[in-house]
Specification:
By secondary structure, the chain is α/β, with parallel strands linked by helices. It contains eight helices and four strands. Strands 3-2-1-4 form a four-stranded mixed β-sheet, sandwiched between helices. Helix 3 runs parallel beside helix 8 and helix 7 runs antiparallel to helix 8.
Length: 178
């Protein structure tokens, strides 16, 4: 029965639901937060909100029995690549991925940034943000993630003049809705 509920939840939700879950005002506030953050460091923060897993990912969990957490992590890594978060000069981009259908959050950091914290510390950060997600406080979860990543990036990759950005290939500061 749980598999059927999960399937229906994922089939029901779409990108419009992602926009409705946050609202335009929250999206504007999150965009401003990321933009302000990126003036103080050379990293790139990408907030990505996906309403539901694509059928191929859902199939891996429901039909093949892969752990849901593993499937969601793989999806976050895929979007890390698709959104070109890896394309920073200092290998310090980070994707914060929120899957609405599961109220689940993942963080995928590029190589140089990932080395700044132990794997357990990254997991602790995700665990702290998960409470807000479970309570449907999505803006709080994404905003807290941006703030914590801002602190980490400012400490380890401070802005040192120049643009500190990706130039013509710069990521949008606006949360990506899928």
């Amino acid at each position: 029965m749980e598999k059927l509920r999960r399937l229906l939840r994922h089939l029901w939700l779409d990108a419009d639901d992602a926009r409705h879950a946050l609202g335009n005002a929250a999206l504007d506030r999150l965009e401003a937060r990321v933009r302000a953050s990126e003036t103080g460091h050379t990293g790139q923060i990408c907030l990505c909100v996906e309403a539901s897993l694509p059928p191929s990912y859902l199939w891996r969990h429901l039909a093949r029995g892969e752990a849901l957490a593993s499937v969601i992590r793989d999806r976050a890594i895929t979007l890390f690549g698709k959104q070109r978060v890896w394309d920073t000069e200092d290998n310090n981009g980070v994707l914060v991925y929120l899957l609405l259908a599961e109220h689940h959050i993942e963080i995928v950091a590029d190589r140089a940034l990932a080395r700044c914290l132990a794997p357990a510390a990254w997991q602790d950060l995700v665990t702290q943000l998960a409470t807000a997600c479970r309570d449907t406080r999505f803006e709080d979860a994404l905003g807290s993630a941006a703030d914590r990543l801002d602190s980490l990036l400012r400490a380890d990759f401070p802005h040192s003049g120049g643009t500190g950005r990706m130039g013509d290939d710069e990521l949008s500061d606006c949360p990506v809705l899928r």
